[in-house]
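Contributing new records

If you add data, match the layout below exactly. Sequence lines come first and carry their own label; structure lines follow with theirs. Keep one chain per record. Anything else will be rejected by the validation script.
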Amino acid sequence: MPVTQNAHNTENSNILEGDGTAPKALPEDTSEIGEDGIPLSPRDHSGVHFVSPSRDSKNGDAKVELGAVGSVPQFVGLGKEELMRYANDPFWVRLRWFLFILFWIIWIGMLVVAIVIIVYAPKCTSSSDKVSNYLVNSGPYYQISLNAVTDEADRFSGLQKHIDHIKNLGVKTVIISQFQDLADFRSVNPATGGTSKTLSDLINAFKNKDIDIRVLLQLSPNHSSKQHRWFTSKPNYYVIEGTEKVSKSTWKTFFHSKAWSPIFENSTESYLHQFQESLADLNYRNEDLVKEMNEVLQHWYNVSEGVHGFLLSDVSYLIEDLDKLEDEKSTINQDGNRKALEKILDSSNWKLENGRKEPFALLDVDHLDAKDSMRLYTGEKMIPILTDFATRLSENFTAEDLKAHAGSVNNHFVIRRLSGPRTGRATTKYSKEREHILAMIAYLLRGEVILYYGDEVGLQQSTTSQLDIDGGFETMNWNPDADSVKISNFYKQLGNIHGMINQTSETNTDDAIYKTEGGIFAFKRDQYIVVANLDDNNAEFDLKSEFLLPDNVTLIVKCSTPNSGLVLDEPILPSTFTAVGTSGYVMKF
């Protein structure tokens, strides 16, 4: 008869199995004890089953199943009590501190890197794009100095007679220079022989629907004449320091003379003049002065609805670092210049009637290359004029020089000039052919171009003319000879091509492709190809393979000796094109 015993005494009882075999001794349960004597998990027999051995088993065999019958054994993690036993273990304490400190070092490092990137990364192109909304299709520009108009006593009326000449150049915006009286910012220059009324009449004549040319007025916000009433009534509007303090200053004028002069003989105070001694620099640290200059711009903007904005000259000199009187660089292109310009151009409180837009400004800047000019002075309502073609190219510039300039301003909308009151005339600095090559390139690159009066008739710089604040060079020749007429037609054709490219480039992006090969500089933009050979020798250039052109293209404009500025309509084969020495070509495909 089978023998049974209470379950509480099974570990010490002899139990007969169902088949009558002798009972097997149950081993001591040590599965929950680790090698170090620490329990591995709480006691739990729910997952352990002792199963009767089969008939084939030998005496003493035991069969054990872990987990539910027929299920996959499950891993049991450390319990809370076991984890707490390791919490204060020195190794784990040190590891936790190491990881904690490493996390914060990495986090702070990433924060610092992000701040550095934000501070030092180049400005986004959004400002430049906003400016282009003001300026796209606004050129070519034509800058005229009233000093050049001498055929009538009233120079405003005299210029009005030559509007057709300007219109025929394909010009869309004219810049009127030397109109303002520096002794009274709200009056016209007495030397013009005109009045505010005749100036307004001139602007309205440009605005006429049959002419439709915008007008910009050139102003210099950096200084006034010493004869201005402010110089005596509001001396805090000027940059004035103790004479003894500035006696050791190394600051120089634009013309390399001493930049400080006593207010009067033996005065204990001296004023700053970065140009002529008769022109005192204004103090843009004074908010009252900034407000006054904002009102001056408002006055001239409202002189006629034909005024679209300004050309502001000498803006590189607005702010100085008075703590560095022995550092000549502390007078030019300081960080505060842009902020001062934004304030005087702020039209939020102006009364703009008949739906007029806010004014924009072109900026004449000095001593900066293209990249730094764009970085320091491009804003929502202002853009610097680039003078690299006029100031940074040598007389014998190369194809690589041209490619470097084009690449330096890639994807930016820029304003270029070849000649100007400070840079001199390209017609004098370069040969006629090279000057025309530069004109071709400037007119067809992305952006706008300023044509300085007289360049369109080959006017040469006088050997006696001074590049000074007056800005005028020579009297304009309004009745050109046959050769000058040919040059004028050359610029007229470039102006027409320039306008056609901008009108068809809806997104206003730079799609130019630049190539150089030996003395050849070439680029494609829209449906036009420009090729310039800067060597004296002829050079063959496979346009078809370089720019993937069709079999035939049309030569539109050519400049080469002896036919510089020749306007053509001549078919050519792009695969066998030969550029003669020192020549330029514009082609359409």
